[in-house]
Design goal:
The chain is α/β, with parallel strands linked by helices. The protein contains 12 helices and 12 strands. It folds into 3 domains: 80 residues, Winged helix-like DNA-binding domain superfamily/Winged helix DNA-binding domain (Arc Repressor Mutant, subunit A, Orthogonal Bundle), CATH 1.10.10; 125 residues, D-Maltodextrin-Binding Protein, domain 2; 103 residues, Periplasmic binding protein-like II (D-Maltodextrin-Binding Protein, domain 2). This is HTH lysR-type domain-containing protein. Keywords: DNA-binding, Plasmid, Transcription, Transcription regulation. Pfam families: HTH_1, LysR_substrate.
């Protein structure tokens, strides 16, 4: 310690008073909304021991970190602030351990990437293909979801980074965001649809068909409705709402319905099963970007993948296979979830 440093400096006061990792782990569990008993069980200790830890943390912090709430407890504003930072500190320690392992083993381990659907096709897929060759020991887990779910997983430490949008329901401060590009939307119909016989079907004729959209309030639904209104066009008749890409694709293939979807996805799945209408209504979802926890230092492998995701230009779709599905890639990748 610097001998000239003020010993009352708040920068190291908590450590000098004895704040330990176990205190941080307990607070991080409580910040997730767990009752004290469940938080104690997650740490492998008894509830009385957890109560003592919480009392110690209050003595060290010099303020109340909890208050009674019915039969349980609730974090005070001070407790919530310390608990949020505890989660970030524990996440950084976990990342530090992963980075040390990566350095020792030559970029092995796991990187956890989240993405909304369009960027998953445009950017994540080509980066995965390159990583299979340049970092063969690395495991990459990809989660596909909407931006709200991805941002939550990012803050909970379940993801290292995401290609997504800043969540509307959260303040911006917990995130670092590097804007990348907008996400254009195409209109998809089944192969052989009568609208494909015209080089540019009139918009009103397209709107005469049933449409498949996500529910009102979702980003794609509201973007489509807003763009049509700006063009002076009526809202489409929507007989089915779903956020499932697979169900949307199945409905399109088995009916005359029209479905808006990210152009990157539409182009990859166009072929024997479905086709993209030539008419461009100028629908584009708000720009996405690289989303990480504010101030987080990514482990080496995650940092390298993040740099590649930013540099990668939108990918040209692979030719579809005989079943209308995208062509093969360089190897299996663990994925989960669907997102509109």
């Amino acid at each position: 310690m610097n001998p000239y440093q003020n010993r009352d400096d708040p920068a190291d006061r908590l450590l000098r008073r004895g704040l330990k990792i176990m205190h941080l782990q307990l607070l991080a569990q409580l910040e997730q909304g767990k009752p004290l008993g469940a938080a104690a069980a997650a740490l492998g200790i008894a509830q009385p021991a957890a109560s003592r830890l919480l009392s110690e943390a209050e003595r060290i912090a010099g303020c109340a970190l909890r208050r009674p709430d019915g039969r349980g407890i609730r974090l005070t504003p001070e407790g919530g602030a310390l608990a949020r930072r505890a989660g970030r500190i524990l996440g950084e320690l976990n990342d530090a351990g992963r980075e040390l392992s990566e350095i020792a083993s030559g970029l092995s381990g796991e990187v956890r990437i989240g993405a909304v659907t369009g960027p998953a096709m445009d950017r994540v897929l080509p980066v995965l293909q390159a990583a299979r060759r340049s970092m063969p020991k690395l495991r990459i887990r990809v989660e596909i979801a909407n931006s709200e779910e991805l941002s939550e997983a990012l803050l909970d430490g379940q993801l290292d980074l995401a290609l997504a949008r800043l969540p509307a329901a959260r303040p911006r401060e917990p995130f670092d965001f590097v804007p990348l590009s907008p996400e254009p939307v195409a209109l998809v119909v089944r192969a052989g649809h009568r609208l494909l016989a015209q080089s540019g079907p009139p918009p009103r004729e397209i709107l005469d068909q049933d449409w498949v959209l996500p529910a009102p309030g979702t980003l794609l639904h509201d973007t489509v409705q807003d763009r049509l209104a700006r063009l002076g066009l009526p809202a489409p008749h929507v007989s089915v709402t779903t956020s499932s890409f697979l169900l949307t694709l199945a409905l399109v293939q088995r009916s005359d319905a029209v479905a808006p979807m990210a152009r990157a996805v539409a182009m990859r799945f166009s072929g024997a099963a479905c086709a993209v209408l030539p008419e461009d209504l100028g629908i584009s979802v708000a720009p996405y970007g690289l989303l990480t926890r504010a101030g987080a230092v990514l482990p080496m492998a995650a940092r390298r993948l993040a740099e590649q995701l930013v540099r990668t230009a939108p990918d040209s779709p692979a030719p579809p296979g005989p079943d209308g599905m995208p062509g093969p890639h360089d190897g299996p990748v663990q994925t989960a979830g669907q997102a509109p």
